[in-house]
Amino acid sequence: MVIEAILPGSVCSAESMGELPAVRGPSVFPEEDALLGRTTGRRRAEFAAARGCGRRALAGLGLPPGAILRQPGGSPRWPAGVVGSITHCDGYRAAAVGLGTRVLSVGIDAEPHRPLTAGLLDVITVEWERERLAELHQSAPSVCWERLLFSAKESIYKAWYPLTGRWLDFGDALLAFQPGTDAFTARLRVPAPEADGASLARMTGRWRVANGLVLTAVTVRTGTELDCCQTGGLFDLGWSGEGLAGQGGLAEDAPPDFLEVEPAGANVDEDVPDTGMGFQPGPGGEAVV
User: Range with the lowest mean pLDDT among 99-108, 170-179, 230-239?
Assistant: First the structure.
């Protein structure tokens, strides 16, 4: 599986690729059918296929199939003691779940590997991020880094919201990719709580480009351990700069304030349009969850 490669072993996942099967009947649990109302055609098929991935992922945890409804904020409502995330875009659906005793939160996102809609980059980034993206384009021009950043911020939001119940604007998470690895790290520019001893002010994730898709995942584990990249990542090195200097990481090229979290109530240094992550689906992103 593609998504499995960027998730830790404590998370079970399932995915489906290709064209959606024709959906003539409900093909979902009655409680889920009530959520869809009069939704028909492709949107119903997307919902059914994504929920199917969710049930297969839950089976990986040894749990029986059941309806996957919605939380008040719109995210999937998993069985008690389970955390998870669902994503779908054209030609791809996936779900990832974990037991709450091992994983506090997980967020995944899939997007088509193509450039963003014109003008969207300025909405989802600040100047520092755009400068870093320009550098990444120089070193790896085959990757749509803007789309990858968009997806990473979506995954961050999906992991953040279940733990905080708070929306994020795209500018609230300052994101950087670790050159030469499949890792990215975000500093939250809003007051962030702790979750089971782990500060949410810094969140890490992994990414992959495959089969015409961009996929990202963020996992917040229990205890003080954050997600640790299994293949060449730098997640366990934190933000002190130790271990990053000389490896093309953030310690060499980030401005000093990037490595520090503003105190509660501090203002951000750039006006960012009030476009909240999670308020509306992104281009090619999920429309019905």
Answer: 230-239
Instruction: Give ∠ CA 66-70-73 in degrees, rounded to 5.
Output: 160
Contact 232/239 with Cβ under 8 angstroms?
no
Burial 245-284 (b: 16+ CB within 10 A, else e): eeeebbbeebeeeebebbeeeeeeeeebeeeebbeeebeb
Using pLDDT thresholds of 50, 70 and 90, give the confidence band for residue 21.
low
pTM for the full model?
0.78
CA 53 to chain centre: 17
C-beta atoms surrounding 116 within 10 Å: 18
Extract the tokens encoding 276. Answer: 């909240």
pLDDT of residue 172: 94
State the number of CA atoms in the 13 A half-sphere of 89 facing the CB. 18
Is residue 54 a contact partner of residue 16, using CB atoms and an 8 Å limit?
no
For residue range 161-192, what is the model confidence (pLDDT) as tens digits? 999 999 999 999 999 998 889 999 999 999 99
* Burial of 141 from C-beta contacts in 10 A (0-12 / 13-18 / 19+): exposed
